[in-house]
Amino acid sequence: MSYTKELEAPARPLGVYTRPKGNTGWRDWITTIDHKKIGILYGATAMVFFGIGGLEALLIRLQLATPNGTVLGADTYNRVFTMHGLTMVFMVIMPLAAAFANYLLPLQIGARDVAFPRLNALSFWVFLAGGLFLNMAWLLGDAPDGGWFAYAPNTGVIFPPATVWTTTPSGSRSWESRRWSRP
Description:
Blueprint: H1 26-30, H2 35-64, H3 74-109, H4 117-140, H5 152-155, H6 161-164, H7 175-179
């Protein structure tokens, strides 16, 4: 007669076979490296900035609703116009693309996660810090006022026409463009 002892299964798997348990709560959202949660964070933050950009657009439209509008002063209008462009392009459109890319691309290609998940998380937090830093300009009283496009020659203190126009109105080359060209 053989004696066999029945083995009991451990309460939970040991070692590398342990499945990670899903944490919940705000602390998990702050410290996450999961691509889906980072995508959701990008999307939610972009929607908050979309609301801020919408308020800026509302101020612009209120100023332009009547001739000689008095809702905003000239300097404030320039600042609101510039911040609206910066907010909508860099704080809404680009992060929404990152949100969809973070959430969907790893799922579409069948990957478990993105290649560098901690760098992915860092990029979100740097984006959020940059957006908050940009909008802190409202509280500090000096938001940028370079216009929507903020092209360098047009936003400088001095606007030298020779650096912008390389030809004269008659179609001949200007003195400055001739000076730096080959013979």
